[in-house]
Amino acid sequence: MKIAEISTAVVALPADEPLANAPNNPGGSRLTVILRLRTDDGLEGIGITYLGAALTRSLRHATQALGELAIGEDAADIPLIRKKLFAAAGGSGPEGMFSLALAALDIALWDIAGKAKGEPLWKLVGASGAPVPCYASGAMMRELDLGTAVKAAGRLVESGFTAMKFQLGLPGPFNLDAEIERARLIRESAGDEVALMCDVNQRWSLEEALKIGPRLDEYALTWLEDPIAYDDVDGLARLTEALKTDIAAGEYLYRPSAFRHMLEAQALDMVMIDPFRAGGITGWLEIAALAHRFGKRVVSHLAPEVQLHLIGAIPNGWIVEYMPWFNALYEEVVWPRDGMLAMPEKPGLGVAFDRRALARYTVEEASSK
């Protein structure tokens, strides 16, 4: 089962998916890198990765270059391929562009592994197959006006979500009253039974977070995500100790050693793993195992089509972020029902690229044999 061909592309996916951030970016697009690996016995594995910046085309080139190094290798030997790629990375690894490119390749290799055995990914990584909880994300972005965000909370409840996330860290100078009012009205719209998470995306200073944190206790948030700079470990440790609300962090981290540093400093309550920065499924599982040793629950960031398999497989997995940014890529997608995601039964990831969508959205591509 040798890798015979790799192709990569940049796709400009519509940013107007109703659950994502359509209202504040109508007609916009989201550049994403996709990868397809083909083996000499006819299997195809698919992978994706995401940078969310002007360097997306550079990320595709990096992904293509790494994939070309894997041509001729046994697709079943993921550790060997990763070792070869790490050795080739030199000074560019193991963070940044290298990890993001590696992620697409690693995800595709796991997809092939499942297809080779005729089993879905969740079986390969040890999940029971039971549905996993998810939360709606992306419908209450900070750029939305208050009324639209509040209505979105009610709409999500009506559509069956039992957990959802909104953003604070509002545009402009820090305004404590405006932040609190937004939290209050969204909680009121969602109701008391809904698990409500809040993402700040590092937009507060430590002093601001310490000021607003106790005020948010009234709204029973499930977690406060990335309230301050991700690398201010001392500040995050102080917040974790000072606030009643749990602190979630980790999406901006790449290596297990960075997570270990955070865990040892007691700088977070919940470990959030981004599959792209983690370098794919292999790195994700390593970080999740580390979190388990520290007694911390794991929550996911982006790519629910990948992460539902993983959250369901680990003993400390809790909930999947349902942010359907990449749904337009696939022939079929997993939609939540009553706040849960059912495990797919098809082999590998359980999803396939929609060829018509690729033809429509591809803006740059390359292929090598």
From TrEMBL:
<dbReference type="GO" id="GO:0016836">
    <property type="term" value="F:hydro-lyase activity"/>
</dbReference>
<keyword id="KW-0479">Metal-binding</keyword>
<feature type="domain" description="Mandelate racemase/muconate lactonizing enzyme C-terminal">
    <location>
        <begin position="146"/>
        <end position="246"/>
    </location>
</feature>
<dbReference type="InterPro" id="IPR018110">
    <property type="entry name" value="Mandel_Rmase/mucon_lact_enz_CS"/>
</dbReference>
<dbReference type="InterPro" id="IPR036849">
    <property type="entry name" value="Enolase-like_C_sf"/>
</dbReference>
<dbReference type="GO" id="GO:0000287">
    <property type="term" value="F:magnesium ion binding"/>
</dbReference>
<keyword id="KW-0460">Magnesium</keyword>
<dbReference type="InterPro" id="IPR013342">
    <property type="entry name" value="Mandelate_racemase_C"/>
</dbReference>
<protein>
    <submittedName>
        <fullName>Mandelate racemase/muconate lactonizing enzyme family protein</fullName>
    </submittedName>
</protein>
<dbReference type="Pfam" id="PF02746">
    <property type="entry name" value="MR_MLE_N"/>
</dbReference>
<dbReference type="InterPro" id="IPR013341">
    <property type="entry name" value="Mandelate_racemase_N_dom"/>
</dbReference>
<dbReference type="Pfam" id="PF13378">
    <property type="entry name" value="MR_MLE_C"/>
</dbReference>
<dbReference type="InterPro" id="IPR029065">
    <property type="entry name" value="Enolase_C-like"/>
</dbReference>
<dbReference type="InterPro" id="IPR046945">
    <property type="entry name" value="RHMD-like"/>
</dbReference>
<dbReference type="GO" id="GO:0009063">
    <property type="term" value="P:amino acid catabolic process"/>
</dbReference>
<dbReference type="GO" id="GO:0016052">
    <property type="term" value="P:carbohydrate catabolic process"/>
</dbReference>
<dbReference type="InterPro" id="IPR029017">
    <property type="entry name" value="Enolase-like_N"/>
</dbReference>
